Amino acid sequence: MEDLLKRYLSGDRRALARLISIVEDDSDDALRLLDRVYHRVGRAYRIGITGPPGAGKSTLVDQMTRLFRSKNARVGVIAVDPTSPFTGGALLGDRIRMNELSTDRGVFIRSMATRGSLGGLAHRAQEVADLLDAFGFDIILMETVGVGQSELDIVEAADSTVVVLVPESGDSIQAMKAGLMEIADIFVLNKSDREGAERMLVELKSVLHLDQREKPWQAPIVQTIANTGDGLPALMQQIENHRTYQKNAELLTIKKKQRIESYVRQIIDDKLKDDFWNEQRVDSLSKAIDKIYDKIRSPYTASIDLFESFGKTASADTRIHE
Asked: What predicted TM-score, i.e. pTM, was given to this entire model?
C-alpha cells in the first residue's frame, strides 16, 4: 500500500485509478489512504453539471473539458451513470465519445455507478473528487446521473452548479421549480437551435422572476448548442464570474467548511450504521418481524429495544477501552 501511495503522490495515473477503485469498493484501507493525502486537497475548483436525462450533459462536459485544456488547466471528470437494475453495473454508453480525451495526460475521466444513491451523485463521488484534487487537477467536472429533482448532493459537492435544460423541458419546468430549479448557480439552455427554444427561454425567465428573494448572485441563463460548441465561451465566462463573485464575498470558504461538516457527518453516519447492524442485531430484527406482523409488538418498541441495545454495547466498549 505504501508503494501505491508513493506512486500516486509522484503523479502515477495508474496509481490514481487504483486508489479510486479502493475507495469505491469501501475497502478498509480507504479512509487511511484518504487521510494520508488530505493535506493536498482544496486547490481544485469543482463544477457540478446536472439536469434531466437527454439534456446533453455529457456533450457539454466534453466541450468544457476541451476549453479548459486550451487554457492549460488539468481536468478531472467524474461521470456518474445510472446503475442497471439487472446487473448492478453502470450504463456507460454516453462515455464512448469522450475516449479521445482520455489519451490527454491533462485529463482523467472516471465513470461511477450510482449504486442506489438517490442524490444524483455516486456514493463515493466526494472521496473520488478529493483524490483528483490531491493529485493536482485544477478543475473537477462532476456530471450527475440526471434523475430530476433529487440532484441535491451536487449542491454540497460543487463550488458552482450548472443546471442544463433543453427546449423540451418547458412542459415540466413548473414541477422542477421546487427542486432542481433552486440549486442552479448558472442555467444552460442547451440544444437552443431546436423548435421551442425561445418559448422555453421565456418560461425559464418567468419562473426565475417569480422568486422574489433578494439574492446577491442572480443565476444567468446561457444558450448553447453543445454539439457545435456554440455558447460554450459564454458559459465558461459565467462560471469564471461566479467563481470570482464567491471568492470576493468569501463564500467559497463558507461552502468548503459546510462541505467538510457534511462529510464528517456522513463518515460518522456510515460508521454508526455499520457498527449498529452487527450479526446479533440483524438476528434480533429477524425475530421481531414476525411479532410485529402478528401485532404482538409494534415497530416502534422494537426499534427502541434495538437502539437501547446499541447504547449498552457502546457503553461497554467505552469501559473496556478505559
From this structure: 0.85
C-alpha cell at 148: 430530476
Backbone angles phi, psi at 63, to 5 degrees: -70, -40
* Cα–Cα distance measured from residue 216 to residue 196, given in angstroms and rounded to the nearest whole number: 31
Q: Cα(7)–Cα(275) distance, rounded to whole angstroms?
A: 33
- 106 is written with which cell numbers? 491533462
Compute the distance between CA of residue 40 and CA of residue 203 in angstroms, rounded to an integer: 44
Task: Please write the tens of the pLDDT for every residue from 141-163.
Answer: 999 876 544 456 788 889 999 99
pLDDT at residue 99, as a whole number: 62
Look at residue 142 and give its three-state secondary structure.
strand
Burial profile 210-245: b = 16 or more Cβ within 10 angstroms, e = fewer: eeeeeeeeebbbbbbbbeeeebbeebbebbeebbee
Amino acid type, 121 = L
Three-state DSSP class for residue 156 = helix
Q: Does residue 224 contact residue 231 with C-beta atoms inside 8 Å?
A: yes
Closest CA to 133 of 159, 95, 171: 159
Cα–Cα nearest to 59, from 188, 226, 187, 235: 226
Residue 86 confidence (pLDDT) above 70:
no
DSSP string of 71-102? TT--EEEEEEEPBPTTTS-B--GGGGGGGGGG
Q: Which residues contact 109 (CB under 8 A, 6 or more apart)?
A: 76, 77, 79, 95, 98, 101, 102
Digit-coded pLDDT (tens) for 246-281: 999 999 999 999 989 988 998 899 889 989 999 999
Does the domain spanning 41-249 belong to CATH 3.40.50.300?
yes
In the chain, domain spans: 1-40, 41-249, 277-321
The 10s digit of each residue's pLDDT in 91-144 is 444 455 566 677 899 999 998 876 544 444 656 888 999 999 999 999 999 998
